[in-house]
Fold these 2 entries.
Entry 1:
Amino acid sequence: MNHILILGGDGYLGWPTAMYFSNRGYRVTVVDNYFRRNACLELDVGMLYALPSLVERAKMWHELTGNEIKVVIGDLQEPEVMRSLFDGRIRYDWAVNPSFTGLPDTVVHYAEQPSAPYSLINHRYANITLQNNLVVTNNLMFAVRDFERDIHIVKLGTMGEYGTPNIDIEEGWIEIEHKGRAERFLFPRQASSLYHTTKIMDTDLLWFGVRMWELRVTDLMQGPVYGLETDEMEMDDRLKTLFNYDEIFGTIINRFIVQAVVGYPLTVYGRGGQTRGYLHVRDTLQCVEKACETPAKRGELRIFNQIMETFAANELAEMVQKVGNELGYDVQIDHIPNPRKEAEEHYYHPTYQGLIDIGVTPHYLTDRVLENMFKTVAQYRHNIREDVIFRGVQWG
Ligand code: USQ
């Protein structure tokens, strides 16, 4: 039975990942410093519903399933907090099979400030993003280097590292011929936010660690995620993951559903031709599972593009409008001046075959999926705050 350490285990993806692996018989340890919850409080952006603490969630999970999720609350920017996870200071003893006290064999690294708008509020939030994302990744890299180099690091990257180039996007690597010679390089990256720039820097840090110390790393270049249904979350409402719909932490599909439910015209930014690759939260879990089951080799930086299909913002708005109208909502679409600096019409042709090749079965954004999201969000309609939907953090 494997032991998985999830850094950022309280987040939108971290908590569902913890339950998913725990449900499949893995030993799971989660670490978090409640960064996201605190940032939401500080910026006064309401979540769709209140959340139990991570310790309470793990307790409920244990009561419901008999499975243990170990919780460590700490800031991984502190090198000693990170190192304590690997050097014996944190004891991994389990009620079931107490003889197994081994270190994690896989670390899933989600412990990053994940919002592009947050990173561009002002220089202070830019610094928080830079410091958190780079220092946590560096602390992890050195802890693995110093205590157990065989541990597989699965880091969440982002498709936004590539930007929107005028050529096809490969899965992480490109063969370049130059003056009669050839070499394989990381695919060119050109982020359009400071947050996305930190993700490029993380990739570079880990690529250095792979070359220098033969670490094993998988980088998952993920697109915006939507949804709030997984088998584990459906066991009990109190196990639901956090759900943001505000401009800073909410992602487009989740936001559009909330907007449609409260009769707020869908906020398409600019012309709405911006195209991205999307995936359901269920597929994030599946992708991470497959990546963990087939680890990168020693000395390999393996990169997958973690998306299932691409949509322009306009297409998403039209899909949400159609399903919303069928459910009896009066859904309007608005094109508001784009607060971001991004191409609103562009070429977008990413490759995303690698995860399918290792066994991932894609789920797609269907009317049914949108209907389910409408139904869940509608249950919490009374909590939705219209004042946080759009404040207009300007990137330019
Ligand atoms: N958009 C709108 N209206 C909105 C919100 C967004 O038109 O109300 C547009 C944006 O302009 C953008 C696209 O939708 O072109 C996606 O925006 P988003 O807010 O859903 O996602 P993004 O800021 O790109 O970031 C999210 C996650 C981040 C992850 C990234 C993957 O927050 O952690 O890395 O998706 S990717 O976009 O592929 O870089």
Entry 2:
Amino acid sequence: MAGTNALLMLENFIDGKFLPCSSYIDSYDPSTGEVYCRVPNSGKDEIEAAVKAAREAFPSWSSRSPQERSRVLNQVADLLEQSLEEFAQAESKDQGKTLALARTMDIPRSVQNFRFFASSSLHHTSECTQMDHLGCMHYTVRAPVGVGECCSVRAHLPVMLADAHNILWHCPQGTAGLISPWNLPLYLLTWKIAPAMAAGNTVIAKPSELTSVTAWMLCKLLDKAGVPPGVVNIVFGTGPRVGEALVSHPEVPLISFTGSQPTAERITQLSAPHCKKLSLELGGKNPAIIFEDANLDECIPATVRSSFANQGEICLCTSRIFVQKSIYSEFLKRFVEATRKWKVGIPSDPLVSIGALISKAHLEKVRSYVKRALAEGAQIWCGEGVDKLSLPARNQAGYFMLPTVITDIKDESCCMTEEIFGPVTCVVPFDSEEEVIERANNVKYGLAATVWSSNVGRVHRVAKKLQSGLVWTNCWLIRELNLPFGGMKSSGIGREGAKDSYDFFTEIKTITVKH
Ligand code: NAD
């Protein structure tokens, strides 16, 4: 292991303190393939300590006014923004994404997550209705998940059942368990931490073991921002070890998870005995539907971006492009030309659009899809196996791959049905609107879709019929954080956004008063 002395050593952050761990995992720089960092390999003991800290911090944090909590969140945002460049460099090195993307998307959005929930949490109202004929009024109240009174409903109801099954149900005070993936490390972690904190919860977060550095750096800002010890605890390590310890802990009544569908299945199994509240944001196999009246000058660069941004490692990336037959040849020619202009190279190079993939294993998995497509008789127009990748000597062992365009592939092929999560996209022709809707819907996922057409009626009609939590028409990835985000079918359960996240991170109660 070259350069062991210079390795960056991360520590868990529990109860406002950085704590070493008894064992560590290697973390790689994807652009060189070298180990550069060591991540705590935490387990049950660390989760116990974090739960204790979160439990003790809960009464004080949850009873602060929304305004006070909002001030703290805004402080975190300000401090993060002041260190934007340092965070962007760290994110790019840790994840392999281009520095330009980390600077313009990942870190600014992480700052925005704190500001957004600092503001939106001030504007929630509750419902009230009246039944004058019975002399009653009814109203709702919300409280952070795990707060005594709300949790007692969860705790008391099933007590007999729980005893019978020897299951620990009681969580008089609880904390939110937050688990995030490696593709947008700080962006997705803060999209969970900020609303959970704003709603008055204490949290235990577990970032991906592959990309833990910016979460650790964030911990250094928390005390200065006025976040009390124990409100945010970050515990590092692998999914099967520390992730499962978090999910299985009886005092963690809520899990917000973003990641893959198989992991979601496991989390659901582990949560079931405790009836935990779950939010699952999972993968996609997102279609782009391009009608013959689409404005190709706008559609082509946007579809190249939607296919290959962040190395194609965004859950919202397009990976099935359906093009109406009359414009198929023209689209394909121009799309391949535009794709070839996306330079692959070292993430800090400002001329580079595609950095390194997250890991050797992932690179091999993505490449294997191209091999399978070839074996099925598909054609590769550019990228893997067709064009030559040129890299500096120091980056030869990095996890780089050229953006790859596949055609002549059947809808049933694994390349058209499974999430590849890399710089690979398939282009196929279609005839009619009805046909393309059916084909687009014919996968197990339902996260995001794009529709390109200048016919307003068609755009609305198709968007309504697509089985997809998000539909962008004549654009991609324009986000309105107030509105629900999430997928249907195997792409997830639940939604996140201003009101949706607030609803998820709180319990609601209906109170009836007879006067
Ligand atoms: P993953 O499921 O392998 O891991 C996600 C997180 O879960 C990591 O922190 C991991 O350590 C943890 N984990 C793994 N096994 C676990 C277990 N048994 N118990 C508890 N935690 C466990 O996913 P990934 O490879 O990190 O991320 C890629 C996936 O995430 C893709 O499918 C992508 O589409 C999806 N994703 C979805 C969204 C969305 O918003 N819908 C956003 C980004 C990524």
